[in-house]
């Protein structure tokens, strides 16, 4: 089934799965068409300024109060929430991992979340968590919502289907999607392949939005029309089901007798959406030098302090390298922001080896990093012809808060204990002559 989507970022959309299900001219009719219930889902305070005011009206088979009966606590030991200091290893350093291995037992998306880092404090709606998901089973009659933040999903192995209250999104590697805070959803595998793996940024703070463009102007980078919001879709299913809730870092479950994905029509601007990273139009240095990676920001979640993101989602897409008399890869640097990186496919230009698709690196607040010895050797001597970096897609979750390692991440068997050796060959080159080499 080819799914349908509506283009635009933050638009006020409207969609109905059954003709006439959406009230016109008002939100709350006395008696809705098809016997549906009207319900508002608020993604911002009622009184937020117009530019950031988000809410949607859902017309559904049952009101959400019927989808959450009595909550019982539930254990999800691998999904951690900030602050999570007592659980993390005290080790400090530049870290890198090979991919998290696929699960051996039956594991669905929810039980397949593995938290790598947490940052900030969920109770104050500040910070984020970097997770990996690995799963091999569909959520059939298991549904979830996360009150702690929105989820940015970044598939790496295999495509997934994300069925939300407001419609269905099929998302494959190179695409990302957002499940808003509080929205019911379930995730299943799409297409062939035993297991699915990807990355997740759980954003506790203000919602992701498009970055300002400044002097770049109205076009390029992530263009609003390339964001796709699903049309209304619903399940009319009377069957034993479970709704799992994440709330202030704790998990609860409630048993119900039907699917909570029962929204037949909706309108509003608080919505899930997906985006293909291949549609990002990178802007970069076309004469010399290496700009800051902020020019590759796809989405930014502001923290309230200008230019200081709660979390930025940044990509390193295919692009031409043309800068003259320039060391073209990332420079050596130290950053007050904390950088969690992953690789969706291909190779990353600062690391010749060791950073593989599905792998991760963590360069925390103020910890030095940059190209490995091989990348330095190559980039500082190569003839500077135009070169296309092709077939590559790396990304970064960059946050103003230090990212605290979970015990899972510290003890993961794929942690590379020799990672920092990648810089061991960077010998002293200072030789007292001004010419360089
Ligand atoms: O560390 C990294 O690899 C990410 C990164 C890339 C870049 O081009 C400049 C700065 C930066 O942090
Ligand atoms: Fe960096």
Automatic annotation (TrEMBL):
GO BP annotations, alphabetical order: L-phenylalanine catabolic process; L-tyrosine catabolic process
Keywords: Dioxygenase, Iron, Metal-binding, Oxidoreductase, Phenylalanine catabolism, Tyrosine catabolism
Top-level class of the enzyme under EC nomenclature: oxidoreductase
Reaction equations catalysed: homogentisate + O2 = 4-maleylacetoacetate + H(+)
Domain Homogentisate 1,2-dioxygenase N-terminal, chain residue ranges per copy: 4-277
Binding, Fe cation: 333, 339, 369
Active site: 290 (proton acceptor)
Cofactor list: Fe cation
This protein's record includes keyword Protease: no
Pfam families the UniProt entry points to: HgmA_C, HgmA_N
EC number, as in UniProt: 1.13.11.5
Molecular function (Gene Ontology), one example: homogentisate 1,2-dioxygenase activity
InterPro entries recorded: HgmA_C, HgmA_N, Homogentis_dOase, Homogentis_dOase_bac, RmlC-like_jellyroll, RmlC_Cupin_sf
Metabolic or biological pathway, per its Swiss-Prot or TrEMBL entry: Amino-acid degradation; L-phenylalanine degradation; acetoacetate and fumarate from L-phenylalanine: step 4/6
SUPFAM superfamilies referenced in this protein's UniProt entry, alphabetically: RmlC-like cupins
Binding positions (homogentisate): 348, 369
Top-level taxon: Bacteria
Homogentisate 1,2-dioxygenase C-terminal domain boundaries: 278-430
Cellular component aspect of the GO annotation: cytoplasm
UniProt-listed Gene3D superfamilies: Jelly Rolls
Function comment: Involved in the catabolism of homogentisate (2,5-dihydroxyphenylacetate or 2,5-OH-PhAc), a central intermediate in the degradation of phenylalanine and tyrosine. Catalyzes the oxidative ring cleavage of the aromatic ring of homogentisate to yield maleylacetoacetate.
Assembly mode: Hexamer; dimer of trimers.
Family note: Belongs to the homogentisate dioxygenase family.
Entry protein name: Homogentisate 1,2-dioxygenase
Organism: Kaustia mangrovi
Gene: hmgA
